[in-house]
Amino acid sequence: MHNYLASIDGSNVRSIKVVESAGAEVNAQTAGMAIIKITTKRTDDGGLATISVDGDESFDGRSATPRFRIEHRSGPWSLYSNGSYMKSHREMDSRTVNSYEDTQGTVHNDANSTNNNRYYSIVIGSAYGFSSTDYLAFDAIVSNQRFRNKGLNSVVKQSQKLPEEQYQIDSYGRSDDSSHSLSSQYVHQWASGNLSLSVFAQWDCKKQQQDQHRSDATTYLNHTQTDAHHRLLTADANISHRLPGSWGKIDTGGSCSFWRNSDDTETCRFRYTEQTVAAYLSWDWEKGAFNSSLGLRYEHKEVNAAIVDSGDNRNTYDNLFPSLRLNYELNRSHGHSLRFNAQRYYRLPDMMMMNPFVQWEGDYSYSTGNPNLLPAFGKTLSAHLTLWRNYSVKATYSNSENFIRVHEREKDSNVLCSTYANGVHQRGWQIEASAMFVIGKSGVLNLNGQRRLYTLTYGQQHVHSYLWMSSAALSYRLPYGFNLRVSGSYYSPFRSIQTKEVSRLSGSTGVSHSFLHNALDVSVNYSIRKQSTINTATSGIMSCRKTNSSIHKLNLSVRYRLQWGNRNAKVKTNTANGIERLRM
After folding, report:
1. CB under 8 Å to 131, separation ≥6 — which residues?
2. Closest CA to 367 of 321, 421, 423, 412
3. Predicted local confidence at residue 432, as pLDDT
4. pLDDT(7) > 70
5. In terms of residue numbers, what domain contains 210?
6. CATH code for the domain in which residue 510 is found
7. What pTM was computed for the model?
8. Cα angle at 184 between 182 and 185, to 5 degrees?
9. pLDDT value, residue 273
């Protein structure tokens, strides 16, 4: 998002609208997410090219990411392309201590891992305008990621009943992922509305290997090879039409999708298929200082998540998802407004949660997925008061189901297993206050504070989770055209089911400057954050894990922007995509 916004010429922006809560026209899984709508001005011929390089040097390694973006419009044709290449090297240290109540023993695991990652992505697209009201756009995306990991675990076992034991575990992992997608969109506009038809197809291939070897053994502790193939196809049709007089606007449409995952190891084959058919209708109405949006979305979903030769695990879901948005301008000239949102939504597990393959994290702990996970449904209500445009208070109440990562001790052993389960019920409030202060003619200070008060229930366990979050950000224009940015955030300690996390503190400061008539931007940023610590307690085992990752980081960013023809040229692009790809 940051790189996309930085590539837009501000003089070509007609309006920016932020919708705090997605309505019926989008997938019900996106409830609670904000949507940013940017409308540009003109459609004359011209083009834009942006080249940037981001690099960082941190406590645990380094990375470099060059990017490019090209747009050109000539007559009815629009051409665009963007791409990025990232290469990183990271080293991470962690310490895990498991304490066992029955044996009065402990296992200390000091782990050091070295990760090398390489990733690239290229997008090539084109659009053709048959007239001022009709255009067809299509694009293709190719991406590839290569990941290499080496690890060394030093294990010390101590017990009152047995002598101390020390050994090491060497691990090696590799992953090669490739992804391809094609999408197309047709848009027809008329005086009071528009029609949009789109299709999206994606296919992925992933090959993984993980080996672990104990220093005092002659055989592998763990050897896993995974071959995965994912397929996704979606189609959408949407119509928007403004009604006569002051009756507002109607949006309606439908979508369908088919998703298939095939994951194989030497000993297990996992298949996941998901078919979805959806339809929606929403009505937007505005009169004077009051505007509203009322929507209803229907989704029919068929899911089959099963291990091959173990029978089917089919589930069918039919659900209605109503949504309501009410906005009232208390005083438009002073910037006073009141907003109210209500929505029903659901969350579906991703592949990491459902895949039943075992991932060992040493010889005393492992994780696995749960193919029997069911969707988690919820409801949310929120009220947002804004005063003088710069000060706001927001209260949100949610009552929802959720997934949980459950930690269990294997019977008659000291092995700790973690998996995912349904059954968590979460309800409570989130109160948020924010303020923006203008400092003279050169600075802006943003302050934000949140208080979360939730009650979590899982089986016979009831946990009251309280969390404070606060952040501050200062932007200030220094002499000679330099810009200063300083920010910081704090998260208080909080509890969840089976886990406790300590407080988190982070901060950053940066300086930027523009050269060559604002065509070249250079920025330097330094950030620091506190080491993370997570405590887990279950079945007579107390586990404490501390991770030392990216405590200090120095980032350098250089961006060059070149324009030709009309600087306000508007390029038609394809906006079709598949929301399900985020769960692949």
Report:
1. none
2. 421
3. 96
4. no
5. 2-583
6. 2.40.170.20
7. 0.82
8. 155
9. 93
